[in-house]
Amino acid sequence: MKRALRWLGAALAVLVAVLVARGMTATSRQITAPPADSLPAFELDAACERLSAVVRLRTVTDSGGGAFAELHDMLADRLPGVRALERRDFPLGALYTWKGSDPTLPPALFLAHADVVPVEAPQTWTHPPFGGVRADGLIWGRGALDDKASLMALLEAASALRSEGFTPRRTLMFAFGHDEETRGQGARQIAAYLAEQGVRAALVIDEGGVITDGLVPGAPGPVALVGIAEKDAINVRLTARDVGGHGSMPPPHTAAGRVGRAVALLEANPFPLRITPAAAAFMDWLAPELPFGARLVLRNRWLFGSLVRARYGATPKTAAQMRTTTAVTMLSGGPKANVLPKQATATINFRLLPGATHEQVLARARQVIGDPQVEVELIESVSAERAFVTDPDGPAFATVQRAIARVFPEVITVPFLVVAMTDARHYAAVSDQILRFAPLRLTAGDTDRIHGTDERISEADYGAMVRFYAQLMRGLQDAS
Predict the structure, then answer these.
(1) Among the four residues 42, 48, 104, 264, which has the most C-beta atoms within 10 Å?
(2) Is 196 a catalytic residue?
């Protein structure tokens, strides 16, 4: 017995030593870089005025092409550098091209979208949502964050670089969809055209990740979240049918009752939490920057996996990184309170982790519901053509990380999974180096402004966005 205890004690000592060693030897993935090159041709006040003018355009999704045509005319009129770019119009988007001097280099493709979501209760806004008001060092209005700031910052950077005589070796392309907030057909059209032309891009970069301040638990400062993948999404309809009748003589389970029970079961039985490759990359890059206790746990997920899943599964925002999510979004039943419905339905929005299939989600939903009288039907898929995770150790991520380090030296860069959907998903046939990051600085309060009330951006932060994109365009000329 004593011998066994000695062996057990020795084994535990070795285990603890391994755990501590892994926690202590975590190597930082962060880099240091010289400050960003100056951009003398850029004037912040004039750029803010142009963004303000663009915010005033009511480019609401599905509002027709007039506002979008006006947008592109305004760009050509107010930004000389834009007039010099080649422009190809699509039914629901536009593609600008700045040809490089070396046609053997694969191009870089920058994405943004010109459309914005509608505004509810405009009277609750501090400034009119389509006023483009500049006040208190801020630009107020729908689209100031999502996504007109990115669109304009990209073109401001290109225009400023051109004005100071910069000529890219690598062709730079700028693709702007007009319906990202709904169907993304504009991005599909542009992507299909590029694929037909045989374009293989060295980098595709879109919105998705941001610079967070105080949103990543334990991080010692602001964190740049660079999306290396995004979730797929499907909409599923649950349907139950019955003969109907009067509410005074109900059966044990009405059609509405069956659907209600199915909804309750789906919510009570969420998909399991999983540490996917994207989540593992996030933890591996973040761990070296955390205090020792958190670093020890994240570096030893082989032992503390259940603890990690429990921690990240504690809030909806972090749980969405680690599970296929289930959101009940629409319900319908009988026409009156005293009428038994002949049909009741519920719509479920599932957001799938990379690697999950539509068939797996439908099969699990049917299993959890366990009622053959409730039909489970896929009604809409907005899936990527070829979902994949971009390698954070690859050349595209390194180039973006260097640009972040040069413009935002105090910021930690980590890869992560984008839980929403972006136009980038349509460009899988154009590149395997797809990233999702716009250098917007967001705090907890700012995240609610996206698609919400009082959307706005700091003028200083907008200037930093322009400097970032200019630095990235310069850095892409040296990347292989």
Answers:
(1) 48
(2) no
